Amino acid sequence: IFMGDCGSLFLGFFLAGTALLGVTGGRSRTFLPVLAVPVLTLFIPIFDTTLVTVVRKLSGRAISQGGRDHTSHRLVALGLSERRAVWLLYGLAGLAGFLALLVRNLPPELAGALIVGFSLVLILLGVHLAGVKVYEEADLPTAQDRPVMTFIINFSYKRRLFEVLLDVILIILAYYAAYALLFGPDVEDAAWPQMARVVPVLVVVNLGTFLVMGVYRGLWRYIGVEDLLTYAKGVVLGSLVSILVFVIAFRFEGLSRAVFALDTLFLLGLLAGSRLAFKFLRGLLPAPSAHGGRRVLIYGAGDGGELLLRELRNNRALNYLPVGFLDDDPLKKGRIIHGLRVFGGNGTIKYICQQHRVEEILISTGKVSTQRIGEIIRDCEPPKIGVKRMHIQFESLSEGPEE
Fold this sequence. Notes:
The protein is α/β, with parallel strands linked by helices. The chain is about 60% helix and about 5% strand.
């Protein structure tokens, strides 16, 4: 519904008022459901408004200036069709509504933990969407004449600071989840002073071990097994050092060993999950060039083919859309590599190319014989379907010119 400012004001006030009345029927039990239920119910417009406001401010644009930079526009820019983008927003709205129903009937502590977890997911999604390029360079006003905004923009690029703040929340959430699992979500009044004594130590010690073990050195988009091992070392070391501190300072009186064991597992899961979320989003949402590139089959479903697939997906300038793999090994036929199916290459190339509207075949391995390459070219019937081979070359820059 596209309306003017006056219409939007009335609509927002009406929805906010009815949402507040619907929380407890006019009777307020606690502050959390009164605030959280309407916010979760109106999650989509609140999330979209917040995202647009923050990104426009950081880009030096006026908040009131219109543009195709809303959540739905960014999802489409990532490669989703308009229909899929709408269904994704429907799903998020439904999930937020379901969480609102849970918040009404759950204890405040458990409801708060669920809201924090859901908020972390939204923050990661918002950061991912904020990185989508939707503004033309010519449309971006220069921020050099606005020193305050320049400081904010430079501050926002301190990714490591964002990681540290995120980890502080994860450390607190992990300890509370471990405590709630063993002793129930209702934290007794006598337990709050103990948690206030434990949590700051956990935060300081874990952040220190994360820094020492190199948790903040990696890039999330390239996370791998080595990074997960680094996270595990940082979390385990942090737990051991924390226990040592409590033994020396408090003789571990009134503390549960089981809580610390569960806290270690939960923190490792949250730490790895938050980093893997970016990689998951990149895999879930296709690249913007995915619909306009040349459709290609990758010949060779081995290490070279997997390397070529990642390069084609990461390097949008190549303008290629991989649709599958070809391999002569019958054991690989029908397998899936990064979401693409492996087709058999013996005698079926022509049919597969016609079925999937293939424009080129890219050979990813140098182990293919000259005879086999000739057979592939004959099956492709050039110039209908082109055939290319990937080469990895190293140019020496240190040696002088040859005489």
